[in-house]
Amino acid sequence: MNKTFTIIKREYLSRVRKKSFIVMTILGPLLMAALMIVPVFIARMSDSVYEVAIVDDTRLFSREFVDANNVKFTDINIDVDSAIELMKANKFDAVLHIPATAFQAPSTLRLFTEKAINMNAKLYMESILRNEFELMKLAHAGIDPEVLKATETKISITAIRMLRDGHEQTDYPEVSMGLGIFGGILIYFFVFLFGAQVMRGVMEEKSNRIVEIIVSSVKPFQLMMGKIVGIAMVGLTQFLIWIFLTFAIVGAVSAAMPEVFRFTPQENIYTSSSQSLNPAEVQQQMQQIQQQNTPAGQIMEALRAINYKVMILSFIFYFLGGYLLYAALFAAIGSAVDNEADTQQFMLPITIPMIFSIVMAQMVMNNPAGPVAFWLSIIPFTSPIIMMVRIPFGVPWFDLWLSVILLIAGFLGTTWLAAKIYRTGILMYGKKVSYKELWNWVRRTG
Fold first, then answer.
1. What is the dihedral of CA 225, 228, 230, 232, to 10 degrees?
2. How many angstroms separate the CA atoms of 168 and 172, rounded?
3. 159 has which bridge partners?
4. Closest Cα to residue 382, out of 358, 402, 398?
5. Closest C-alpha to 421, from 404, 400, 443
6. Which of 126, 276, 282, 438 has its CA 20 to 30 A from that of 82?
7. Has residue 116 been placed in a domain?
8. What's the rounded mean pLDDT across residues 348-352?
9. Does the pLDDT value for residue 379 go beyond 90?
10. Are residues 146 and 292 both part of a single domain?
């Protein structure tokens, strides 16, 4: 056991001291933080006013175009060609032409611009014209728009989950789906990333003949387990550092530039008010949203209802369990081949279950309590991804513990299988191995 710990220590320290590890540990959080921060900056940079000239030949619609947060409309009583010339002279960003036949033929509407079209502004203009055209059609048909509006009914069924303790909990499947697929993809990414490192590490030691010296002091099984666990600790260390630094960077930037990251619930292009709110008003509106049945309020309530303790602990367990299960097989492949080109024939059976899990994730999210979700979440080769997809929806403790027990059993089984292959393959050179020969190694006793 002491020798195994020595190998674990060697694998861990040798990898965390590498420049590549240090660089990736720094770049990872920077990239993840950039994915959160850059879109906010881009959105703020695009806050410049988009000026649109309205050429309304019908003289019916121009008064309906009310300035929004970042869109300003100007009604100009000139022909469209003259308006386009003004646009080319940088007087306007775009020209909206509403021809006299627009009501009979809406396809004749035109938006002229020299630059890339502002899609938010375009959608805003389309929504205004759509509403006005509908009102005119109702008036021509002799239908009172107010009567028609009164018949519109917005249906939203609130899902209530009855808990075993007698309490009720509002269910928000959309938020659960997002968290589930995010957790599953993270598991998929990390298992293959660090599993491949195990395979390459075994191949490097084998090709350099270092392994011949190592196995003279330790058993092949101890060497394999030390390498697998050592790299697992490296992966877990890097992951935890990434999470901590990412949130630290985002928090620091948000604190340093609060005006950039200030968000108000009313901040939308479809609102005509462009007045900024002070922090007290923002807080008051946020509380109102949480109390109202609005999408923003529902998301906040859904995020509060999630059992993050179970989510985080489950992620760590399924990351480690899935990694250990697949890393043993990756180590076996690395020991059976001499170069990376020869690994392709053995990689397919290993990658299929993980890819299949990602493909089936959508079906599982549609029915997380169904038989397909149940069986895929307890089979060791698919459970790391599928169970992470199911957990945000709420999983019975029986299913969770059965999945945990079977994943541990699966890891022990693949480790035993991989050890049989590893023990023979690690000292074999210059021979292409077939599946038949691998089976003979597994059957060999002693």
1. -140
2. 13
3. 171
4. 358
5. 443
6. 126
7. yes
8. 87
9. yes
10. no
Both 83 and 224 in one domain: the answer is no
Task: Give 6 or 215, the one with higher predicted confidence.
Answer: 6
**H or E segment at 379?**
none
Contact 177, 312 (CB under 8 A): no
The residue type at 409: A
Residue 102 located in a structural domain = yes
In a domain, 270, yes or no: no
230 against 154, higher pLDDT: 230
CA dist., res. 223 & res. 70, Å (int): 63
> Do 119 and 246 sit in the same domain of this protein?
no
Sequential DSSP letters for 206-266: HHTTHHHHHTTTS-HHHHHHHHHHHHHHHHHHHHHHHHHHHHHHHHHHHHH-HHHH---TT
Instruction: In whole angstroms, give the CA distance from residue 164 to residue 332.
Output: 45
Domain range enclosing 105: 46-151
- Whether residue 101 has pLDDT greater than 60: yes
Average pLDDT over residues 197-210: 78
CB contact set of 143 (below 8 Å; sequence gap of 6+): none
Same domain for 216 and 319, yes or no, is yes
Structure tokens at 46: 């695009």
Of 129, 151, 173, which residue sits at a domain end? 151
CA 361 to each of CA 87, 160, 180, 389, 406: distance values in angstroms, whole numbers, following the listed order: 50, 23, 9, 7, 20
Average pLDDT on 166-182 reads 69
* Residue 219 domain flag: yes
